[in-house]
Amino acid sequence: MIRCASFACLAAFLLAATAEAAPTTRPADAAWSKTVASLAHALSVRDAAGLDALLPAGAVVKSFDGSPADVARLIARVTRGTLVSARAYTSPPAVLAADLAADAKKSSAVPAEWARRMDARDDRDMARANATAAQWLATSVGSTDGDPVAVICLWVPTQDPAGAADAPAGDMVFALVKGVRGEAGQVFVRTIAFGDPLR
Question: Where are the domains of the chain?
Fold first, then answer.
């Protein structure tokens, strides 16, 4: 189920435009934004200990393909990766595909071929991409309206099988995150689902 939803979302994401969208998504609060920034940093520098310290007892780390996963496997999956996007939201976002497309276009790590795929034909394509992306996120981490969520993506280069220097290859690896609020207002990581939806 997760893999199927992930593939549908990525297909929509590749159609998403980088044009400015209406600000219908509430910004994340400072505590959650800080937690997501720390997660993104730990992933980008492959800091397993730092990442593990951000996960309270009972936190779940799982892969899109359903195979057993933990912090070590998550770190291994993003080895050599470059951070492309780290977006935190107070509730399921209305413009997730547009946000990710804009970040990917600005990243020098993402090949131009990928950037070209992100152009949508019209506003209808954008609306469909945003709706599909929001559903993908909710399905993957089990979030509902009001849950703090986040999406972190890294571009991980892979060697082209033919060895062609002019054909950069790689994977866009996503880490989808759900948080939970504590009694004192702090926000903890509850679930991380990760992987490349196309693999």
Answer: 2-195
